[in-house]
């Protein structure tokens, strides 16, 4: 197929590109045969036409990507006016070197970024007027965060520079252009291209992708929102007769990808819906931001209906700018209008301007929780309804996907489908999704809720890999795994599972290691922090860090909050000289542990070798109520540790691990592991071609690795548990 001008063109299906290498860098991926059909080479530019036209650089996709598919990131999808799964017209296009590029952006970006830094970030990117562009440089991929561009951007904008979006308000020449080293890049104040505005503000009669009845796990929230809309829009006279106002503003919160916008669209089926994209509008210059909101408000007031603002925290963050008051005024006008309802969605309610929750704005809230195992099973069954499948164990996949939201499950199935299609292409059989495809995809897909930087990678170790520690493993299994694996038993017996566990014992006895093994065994995410890391000299910062830690844990449940060196985080109150910071942190911890908001599928583990320094209030029932003493290893335990740690070390026939373990009194678990490591190094010093580790190597290593356990400290720790 050719365009009217004779250039080859293809109609392809748009799919979201989840690759971090290409994310928001203006790169699309095409099958090699599609690149050949367009008559272009890799890294040439192509034009993309949906409801508007943009341009991007075309890279080669993996052979597993279907021929008729084009992979685009979320910004490029928006620039082309597309949604995932829709058709896009792809042409080769001539790109000119830009003489000038004019941009608008947030006040943070406009005040912090110089034209030189801007040009450095945009170098090589292809753009048209009205496009949204990120600051992520084309050459910035995993492992290259030390590039000059990223350093300059991080220094100027701060940690949020990777999420900043700018709007192209003008280019010279007026055509698709690429930023060159001699391009003049400037900030402007002009109104963006109308096509961009139409993308930010979308007006339609809602025709949802799924019906309300298909909203797995969100039926109570859907019923409540349906009832509110019915009273406010269809039967306002009932409220008026009772002297109540008919105004309605709703804040819908929940983890990213849980289906907040899908829920609203499904409930608003058949109603007039005006959508405003919060991140797109929030990336505009302040005056243009206000104009976009005012335009959307005028549109919804003119014909009535629902004004939906997605990711409203990007438009109205907690760090409010002067323009925020004007935007709130416009929204207040919309809510006060008869026949108009305001609905806003957010994945970060604590990062939202508090004034949005005022009684005359979003005074009602709906929360969407993470799906539990039963809901994940129902979601998987719904997503697989029209997919040819082999022998699948949906229950196993549901149990192995804690923390997955519907978007994660959809991504999981896409990855599994790629594997199935690749296999079918090789063996010539009709494609069919089987259990191995899904299990393989699980090794690649990481849920959105587990993207927090504080989450620990637990690896593949399990409790079976932990040498001895039988008592500690049994106590942790009962306190952590049983409530998750057998919730019906706890409900039947009418008891609440313990909320927290304190692991205490001498240094090096495996407290952190057993937590990793526990998390891997139970498929849990671990949010770990050392006590000293949360302490901050600024008033309120430490308490905020505690709240943020527990918020991330709730969002990625089932999860563990691991407080290492908890004695530094929660010392006895009234005995510090830090202006009360320690006391306030202890109060924040107590509030999170047994406050009003419950910890659903979240267990708190503390670890310390100085339990006597911890505030006693933290050890009461309902808090860190289970005390587990991690005993120093005895001879039998040391043997088990040596066998486990020595699985990958070739030992000669003259090594008797029973004899070695018996002679290691005073050695901790870490000491035993260090002894084997030093013995292997000793063998290498003896001969770089050494094939195994001998008894002589172990004897020599003992001269270097000395026992670290203090008998007096061990006795004091054991006495602490007996006193309690």
Automatic annotation (TrEMBL):
It comes from the Bacteria. The keyword Nucleotide-binding applies. GO terms for molecular function: ATP binding; ATP hydrolysis activity. The keyword ATP-binding applies. It holds the Pfam family CDC48_N. Keywords: ATP-binding, Nucleotide-binding, Repeat. InterPro entries: AAA+_ATPase (IPR003593), AAA_ATPase_domain (IPR050168), AAA_lid_3 (IPR041569), Asp_de-COase-like_dom_sf (IPR009010), ATPase_AAA_core (IPR003959), ATPase_AAA_CS (IPR003960), CDC4_N-term_subdom (IPR003338), P-loop_NTPase (IPR027417). CDD domains: RecA-like_CDC48_r2-like. GO terms for cellular component: cytoplasm. Residues 11-95 form the CDC48 N-terminal subdomain domain. Residues 246-368, 497-634 form the AAA+ ATPase domain. SUPFAM superfamilies: ADC-like (SSF50692), P-loop containing nucleoside triphosphate hydrolases (SSF52540). Belongs to the AAA ATPase family. PANTHER family: AAA-FAMILY ATPASE, NUCLEAR VALOSIN-CONTAINING PROTEIN-LIKE. This is Conserved ATPase.
